[in-house]
Amino acid sequence: MIRIINKQQKIWFPRRYFRHKLREILTIGGYAGWDVGLIITDNINIRKLNKTYRGIDRATDVLSFPSTQVSPQNLLYNQVDSAFEPKDLGDIVLSLEYCCTYSKKHQQNVLDTTIILLIHSFCHLLGHDHDLDQDYIKMRRKEDEILGKLKP
């Protein structure tokens, strides 16, 4: 199930479109049928989360909260230990306000920008990271693979 919560009222947000694209990302990534949460927020709230969980006191575009402990050395694979274990990847928190500002500044389509960020965050939920160059390369390949298979 894809859980979507809109916690901001500043910018209209196409819920059906995002649900469809997230479902497509999950399928392409090999996690069809897995649960994921998407929380749409504003810069004030994502800044608070960024400070609380990452120690960085500024707004950001997207944050990922995996439901399991994953790391680049221990990527999440599409397996669970039992039929009763939940298939929940975790939650994605996206500042739509940040995305709109970024898109306008860089003359990009805001929907395209948010899709790229959803893919990026999905990869984080799987355990990919970009702290080291080799990890960045792996994560970027995965992002490009998924983006290349998405329907327009």
UniProtKB/TrEMBL annotation:
Q: Which UniProt keywords apply?
A: Endonuclease, Hydrolase, Metal-binding, Nuclease, Zinc
Which Gene Ontology terms cover its molecular function? endonuclease activity; metal ion binding; metalloendopeptidase activity
Q: Which GO terms describe its biological process?
A: rRNA processing
Q: Which Pfam families match?
A: YbeY
Cofactor dependence is on: Zn(2+)
Q: Does the keyword Zinc apply?
A: yes
The record's InterPro entries line, in alphabetical order, gives: MetalPrtase_cat_dom_sf_prd (IPR023091), YbeY (IPR002036), YbeY_CS (IPR020549)
Q: Which family does it belong to?
A: Belongs to the endoribonuclease YbeY family.
- What is the protein named? Uncharacterized protein
Q: Which organism is it from?
A: Smittium megazygosporum
